[in-house]
Amino acid sequence: MACxxxxxxxxxxxxxxxMNAHGVQVQNAIGKPIMSxxxxxxxxxxxxxxxxxxxxxxxGLVPIYAAVTIAILLILLLILQYRKLLSYQxxxxxxxxxxxxxxxxxxxxxxxxFRWSVLILGLMCFIAFLSExxxxxxxxxxxxxxxxxxxxxxxxGYAAFSVAMAVMRLQxxxxxxKLNSKVVVIGxxxxxxxxxxxxxxxxxxxxxxxxxxxxxxxxxxxxxxxFSEGGRIEGLSPTVAIPVISTMGYAGxxxxxxxxxxxxQHFSLIIAFETIALLFLVVALIYKIRK
Length: 291
Description:
Blueprint: H1 2-30, H2 35-58, H3 63-81, H4 88-98, H5 103-108, H6 116-146, H7 156-178, H8 181-201, H9 205-219, H10 222-230, H11 238-266, H12 269-290
Subcellular location: Membrane
Main location: membrane
InterPro entries: MFS_dom, MFS_trans_sf, MFS_Transporter
């Protein structure tokens, strides 16, 4: 099982990088923001996926057959939509148009990704994904231990966060078009930081849930903006930059909850949550200086 899960994780990671790289190239080709909508549908898919699998099992379908059903749907999706993906030649044309590079130099030089512009985007992605991982792993425990919520309802905080993030991402492309990436990232980081502080400090559950909603609204479009910028770094192919940014981001989602657990063990879970709020302020500061 461990070997199969490892292979599954590698496959999901490869698909994730390819989807984001392809999405950036489609965005560049059509000349308008679409990354937030793509990430929004990803969030919606996550919500409906968990509900759908639970529904199949609730209807009496054995878990293995439910999983096979979903696998078959994925295969059908691939067969029906494969030809609509950009061809390799079209991808190269878009890359050359929006990120002109010398192909011969790319093949000879190593560590093309080792640039400040790539690493700083990856670092900020690390922080944004860390917050998502923290909400997934720690929000229920926080509500139970610090807000007195009964165990069967402790998932309500993450649900509020996830729904708010999905809704905001579906509106994110309009925001980026009307405003700009600087307003979206800095304003979103400040709003997310405020949301966490409300979650920590609020004496009422209703206000705490509003804090989770603000966190989801603020953090929703930060990562899509970073991926979009990663696909437009001058002189660097998106197929080089995006894997690095994705890897650093998902490292935050993986290692972040463990880091917060260490902070909670030595201090408290409240301090751990306040650390996330501080990190969002760091994102806002870095992005302001960088831009």
